[in-house]
Amino acid sequence: MADPAALIEESFDLALAAELQAALLPRTCPTACPHQVAAARNRMCGHVGGDFYDFIRANEDQIVVLIGDVVGHGVRAALMMARIMGYLHSEPSAIVRPAGIVTSLNRMLIDLGRRTGSVLPCSMFYAVIDAPTGVCFYVNTGHPRPFICDQGTCTTLEPEPGNLLLGVEEFTPQEGCHAFTPGQRLVLYTDGVLDAGNGTSRFGEKRFHEVVSSHADQPPDKCADAVFKAIDDFRKGYKQGDDETIVVIDRV
Asked: What pTM was estimated for this model as a whole?
């Protein structure tokens, strides 16, 4: 028979871990983000999970925006996402070079996997936006391709050269580039958003596009909230099967 005291302690530990993880994930740009208005929403399918995102003010002109998904769920994935976010914040001089920081992060995950006798795969979209010009350089390592929305029409970001998932093997990351213009919206998300199901079908990219497009005139926080509400309405009470995260950024 399980020890009631031990169960209470375990429940308390999980609740505390969930609070700590939530504290790592900002809902908006934590510091002034010139020329950008952003909002983010996240919900894990358990107490803790492997989805992560961040806004990092690298310097006066450049902002780092990232979103990622550690493969798996629960405490193991949560520890990995915390390790990744900590690593990125520990390299202030390197974070403005997408290919360079992704290479270093990949090596760190491979080394950690070797020491633990496992593979620790992770997808990530990592971008550096130059605030004055709107020019963005990015690396996508197996993550769902973001949307670019302009005047209510959303299209997927131009395909970048294929990159592997992080943590599997060493590779040379290839960068993509996009020049944001005022009024454009960047929508980042994890695969849990598209894979949300109701027992017979998945939410999918088409529904996601429709919700985002129909809220093109709304601020980023309203758009993000609308996506989660649409998923809930679609799911009809069906259990959430994966972590779900969306980040919406407007160029102003």
From this structure: 0.90
